[in-house]
């Protein structure tokens, strides 16, 4: 009996030990992102929620990353300057408080060659843009981002061909004279505005609607997809289809966060970014004529 009692006690201890090992294995799996240990990727941008940029993020990037990673990666999208204006969220990506962002080329203030794609009248059409930016030239332009700013470039995407909107008709070069024009706070833009004879007022995109509504500025320049998605047509009367500049965006991710990922996760993110960016290019190109007709109808209704 005494031996049986000792044997029974031994079995209880052994089962308890095995149970403990099983529990430890479950925790290890969760830590690898299989259940409850997913890494979150916050993606910040300044576009309105229904802009093609955010549609592509929702329908392509988020879906692909979460499905292909098996739930080890989760994507949270923050549109419309939710995490700050362009400079603020880009700085957030640089310092790691935000994992990922889709800024314009604001970094050209520190890395001048990043401003090359926004030289006036450089590109003929969307195909020309894609051929240049997705080739060796695009790689060369973006290659210093990792070394100088601590962000890894993932893919080029489209803001679009820029044009001027205003609260008056622009029929000639003389009509630019004295026009109070909102421009991004980037030397390339400011120089163009001054050469046209406008009074340039730099401000973040998040402040544009109020500035136009309150007539702090007379006009602004952006692609018509942004003009429509942001509702600026409600406080403007005219658009000049100048296409004076193509404005790209670029998917970037914090370098330290990137290095914390597995090679498989990096590949998933890289491929998802490229697919989403290509899709956004398609949406921008397809929506151009539709956006143009929409603005013509709305301007006619308010004039």
TrEMBL record:
GO terms for cellular component: outer membrane-bounded periplasmic space. Transmembrane segments: none annotated. GO terms for biological process: transmembrane transport. Keywords: Receptor, Signal, Transport. PROSITE patterns: PROKAR_LIPOPROTEIN (PS51257). The keyword Zinc does not apply. It is found in: Cell envelope. Belongs to the bacterial solute-binding protein 7 family. This is TRAP transporter solute receptor, DctP family protein. It comes from Geobacillus kaustophilus.
